[in-house]
Amino acid sequence: MLYISFKQYIQHGGCLHNGKGYDMKNVAIIGSTGSIGTQTLEIARANKDINICALSCGSNIELIEKQAREFKPDIVGVWSREDAGRLKLALADMDITVVWGMDGLIQIAEYKTSDILVTAIVGMIGIRPTIAAIKAGKDIALANKETLVTAGHIIMPLAGECGVSILPVDSEHSAIFQSLQGNKHGDIAKILLTASGGPFRGKDREFLKNVTLSDALKHPNWSMGRKITIDSATMVNKGLEVIEAKWLFHVPPENIQVVVQPQSIIHSMVEYKDGAVIAQLGTPDMKLPIQYALFYPDRRYLAGDRLDFEKLTSIAIEKPDMDTFLGLRFAYEAIEKGGSMPTVLNAANEKAVSLFLSEKIRFLDIYEIIRECMDRHRVIENPDIDSILETEKCVYDYIESRW
Q1: Strands 75-78, 50-56: parallel, antiparallel or unpaired by DSSP?
Q2: Got the DSSP string for 165-191?
């Protein structure tokens, strides 16, 4: 069962017509200066009944100052104390509270007036704020993969206990969620999770030996952050999405099939037990799943390109090459071993991608680092948050000692 219901939507301040327009929806964002965060703010600009009550970022002080001046939140947060001091001085003429560090993120996550938290932050740093928001009764527009990949066994039951909705923001998981509307969850036979194939689709390992950072950052369809663009190139991203789908939709991994759809027109599909397949199609635009999460179950006008079916002559589907792009294979292995192994996969990938983005390792070294970390790990069954974060630290320390 997905922890989303129409009743919960009403209880949590959803934007429903009441004959006088729409109610104001108060939105908090952690990760407001990244790709998802900035696109969320674009949606806020276009919908005057969205009030941005809280913002946070890592270290992009210049941009978050501009965001704060435009949207006038009650509270903003940054990671370091030094940056918080700088931001406080920059915003001295405004009545805005400035916070910092993990305590600051948690303050923003559970901020008293917010209705929904957009978790647009990258990395496992998003786990604790997400838990705090759930306990505070905030709905979650989830864009932080790591939260469910590493702690899905904690997050989803907690959301159910607290009566909180977890609304997926990833285009693929939003597509699955949209394809489930009006149907019974128990009727699902299979989830068909689509992948673009990334910039190196159709290439072999020999080709991948010499690809550059610039090559890997040239995604053919989507405009995303640097880290997730590399994850798309390795197909680790799709592997993490398989794990995420397992928790979001309570579907066993053997019933989650990845298919390559190079045009990024089909965003994902659900096959039902009677053989019907329902898909969500559209142009590749992340604002659609963000807006759907913010206003669910309503649909609102969204400016942008539309599919032209008179010009669309075919939709291609391919089988993923799991022998060349090992990220997907690693993810299914991590699911099978369970426990803390998905944390190892995620942490090893995060560190390896960071090294690749700094041009300290080659593209194929990302796979080598993940493989070595998974091979040496002894699985912890049912890890708590402290164990998850300690596993991450151990993986980071090992990689720093070796590379």
Answers
A1: parallel
A2: -EEE-SHHHHHHHHHHTTS-GGGEEEE
* Per-residue pLDDT band at 307 (split at 50, 70, 90): very high
Q: At what angle do helices 171-180 and 287-295 cross, to 10 degrees?
A: 50
Neighbours of 23 (CB within 10 A): 14
pTM: 0.90
- 97-100 and 116-119 beta bridge pairing: unpaired
Cα dihedral sign, 297-8-382-394: positive
Which of 322, 294, 255 has its CA nearest to residue 25?
Answer: 294
Is the dihedral angle over the CA atoms 300, 305, 309, 315 positive or is it negative?
negative
The CA distance from 234 to 216, in Å, is: 9
Q: Which residues pair with 191 in a beta bridge?
A: 256, 270
Q: Is the distance from CB of 289 to CB of 169 less than 8 angstroms?
A: yes
**Core vs surface per residue 333-369: b (16+ CB within 10 A) or e:** bbbeeebbbbbbbbbbbbbbbbbbbeeebbbbebbeb
Which amino acid is it at 382?
Answer: N
DSSP 318: B
Strand 266-272 versus strand 188-195 pairing type: antiparallel
Could you say which DSSP state residue 233 is in?
H
Tens of pLDDT, residue by residue over 336-355, are 999 999 999 999 999 999 99
Cα–Cα distance measured from residue 124 to residue 364, given in angstroms and rounded to the nearest whole number: 23
Distances (CA, A) of 133 to 78, 114, 296: 18, 10, 19
Measured in whole angstroms, the distance separating CA 123 from the mean position of its chain's CA atoms is 10
Sheet (strand 256-260) strand order: 256-260, 188-195, 266-272, 277-281
Tens of pLDDT, residue by residue over 126-140, are: 999 999 999 999 999
Which H or E element spans position 213? helix 213-216
Give the β-pairing of 116-119 and 25-30: parallel
Nearest to 259 by CA among 241, 247, 274, 286: 241
Nearest to 280 by CA among 194, 183, 185, 166: 194
